[in-house]
Amino acid sequence: MKIHNIKYLLIAVLMLIFSACDPIVDEQHLADSTNVAGVELVATQTPPGGNKVTLSMNTPGVTGYWDYGLDKALTNETTIVYPIPGKSTFTFVGTLGKTFFTKTIDVQIDRIDTRLDQDWYDLVSENTSAGKTWVFDGVGGDGRLWWYMSPDIANGGKDKWDVAWWNAGGSGDKVPVDVAGKMHFDLDGAANYNHYATKTATPTKGSFKLDIKNRLLTIFNSKMLGYEAGNADGIYEVIELTDTRLVLHLSNNDANKTGWTFIFKPE
Fold this sequence. Notes:
With 267 residues, the protein is mainly beta. Helices cover 12% and strands 36% of the residues.
């Protein structure tokens, strides 16, 4: 009898030990604090109608970021100096708790009354709606550097943009097919870009993004002047941008898998 009692006691103790080893689970379930319709987006212009815009997401319990096309702001509220007059759409990307969402707000910008970063004026001129035209800073066989192969990433990349492995354009060995062409940038209602294969050709129309913070210029749905040495993604490193000179670079172009440097001047 005592043996049976001891056996049951041992079984009970073992059960207690194993049950004590089971993890304690605190089940917390995410829940939405509101719905998309309940998310309040507000745009405040200072002064009204101007291009200095404060974008706010004012609903408690909602988090996310603003995407205003030219950049992203990883916060619920940001103030931007927007360079494009006309009607623009800004997007808030966030979560309601368990549900991710996007919601937009339209802003009408009637005038550029807060001055832009100088890079914008250098690229498109002080008359941002009329824009600016750029051409190659050289002609085939002139011996100058304006369209040339430069070191790849393994050999210095962007830091060696001014080193010519092969002076394709200046030597006359190979000039770009659009050597006599031009490209035009303006901010007339949008960030507009036109590529012309020759001075009088019908343009290939696209758009562009100037990322001042990261020193990048991206061309969408069109071609960069000298595109044979370009990249399919259309993203170029901005080495220099002044009123009289634009220097772009790729550290790994599609055609040669090397660096390539492009130098332009205003028409």
